[in-house]
Automatic annotation (TrEMBL):
Domain of life: Bacteria
Gene Ontology terms, MF aspect: oxidoreductase activity
Domain NADP-dependent oxidoreductase span(s) in chain numbering: 14-269
Coiled coil: none
Organism: Companilactobacillus nuruki
Stored SUPFAM superfamilies: NAD(P)-linked oxidoreductase
The protein's name: Aldo/keto reductase
InterPro entries the record matches: AKR, NAD(P)_OxRdtase_dom_sf, NADP_OxRdtase_dom
Residue stretches spanning the membrane: none
Amino acid sequence: MKYLTFNHQNTSTIGIGTWHIGEGNHEKTNAEIQAMRYGLDHGINIIDTAEMYGEGLSERLVGQIIKNYHRQDLQLISKFYPFHATPKLIEESLKASLKRLQTDYLDLYLLHWRGNTPLAQTVFGLEKMVQAGLIKNWGVSNFDLSDLKELSEITNGNNCRVNEDLYNIGSRGIEYSILPWQKSHHMSFIGYSPFGSDGSEYLKIDPILIKMSQQKHITVHQLLLAWVIRNLDILSIPKTSSIEHMKANLEALEINFTSDELDLLDQIYPAPKHEIQLDTI
């Protein structure tokens, strides 16, 4: 397993994403449990979930799994709806998530995306949860540069430890300003959906990806994940619903690119040369 410094901790380069996890039949759920256990048993130490995922079903499944592990060895992230972003509703949502997850605290609690609640109120509510010992730290998700700058000007806004945005080879908007800004402010980054998502318009598989993966004797999915984590400086959280897929993700950690390969991929999927609107899923 390769590790990076994430939220000031030693963290596996890939985590376990849980969107749509726990929503299927018994056979599907059992396969998801086995996949997640395999990942945890092979060095992954961070799980990303949310109250939105299956309206709590994902958190319940994660809770079943992590009770068989030492809690202090894991980093657990969950997210709350923007319409739960007032201090009162943050506390209610958090306690409900903790109950489903069968844990006393979260390592990170994220605002899933911006809503109508003023950020100052949300920050106040999150700071209260830190003081209460229910979360260690907090962060945000789907924030662009203007959102992050606004957040930084709020009282205690600089306590934001993490921002989570879409990041894959077809959605590189964060590279222009988000990543540099977060690095300069000592804020960790999470990239979600390294493979795009079902029906995503943001990640079209160019034939060069197929050709390159064949040349390297890997799958296209492995190539996509290896590209996202190529610099070992961001956390990626691929969703994994089978042991075979989990094994493939772990194998992707050992894939390297030549400078010529990276140049070729940059030609097909160019990095932004100016500020652009970030893609979201």
